[in-house]
Amino acid sequence: MSTEKLTEREANMYSPLTLAFLGDSVYDTLVREHLLRQANMPVAKLHSAKIKLVCAEFQSRAYDLLAEELSEHELAVLKRGRNATGNTVPKHADAAEYRRATAVECLFGYLYLTGQDRRIKELFAVMMTLEDNENG
Fold it and tell me: Which fold would CATH assign to domain 8-135?
């Protein structure tokens, strides 16, 4: 799955919600791979574990952790995602959580489009420390 990397300027032309649309998939794929590499388990168990990590509540909790690790430009992308309008809030999350989760997804989408795979993995690892702390 090779895509041509965009410049920061080109990536900034996309709306935050469009970046989040892509970032949701990027993050979901990382979570699936992370869980698969942890243990060979039945798909139903993998799915249950995935749901806990891709929900707005978990992503919202990771927001502050990520914000501490970001460059000024990355933080601007995160905040742009958080401030995006037009979000419909699912029943299982409040508006603030959902906006913060959208911000995380926006950042992942932006980093993916600009070809910053290594940075995505670094930030994903930071998010997974939250999972480790909650489970350990």
Answer: Ribonuclease iii, N-terminal Endonuclease Domain; Chain A (1.10.1520)
CA distance 107 to 80: 9
| Rounded-to-10 torsion of CA 44, 46, 52, 58 | -160
What mean pLDDT do residues 5-12 have?
95
Residues 6+ positions from 91 with CB-CB distance below 8 Å:
none
Active site residues: 24
Q: 3-class DSSP state for residue 57?
A: helix
Could you tell me which of 116, 133, 121, 134 has the C-alpha nearest to residue 37? 121
Asked if pLDDT for residue 88 goes beyond 90, the answer is: no
Do you know the residue count of the chain?
136
10-48 residue pLDDT tens: 999 999 999 999 999 999 999 999 999 998 899 999 999
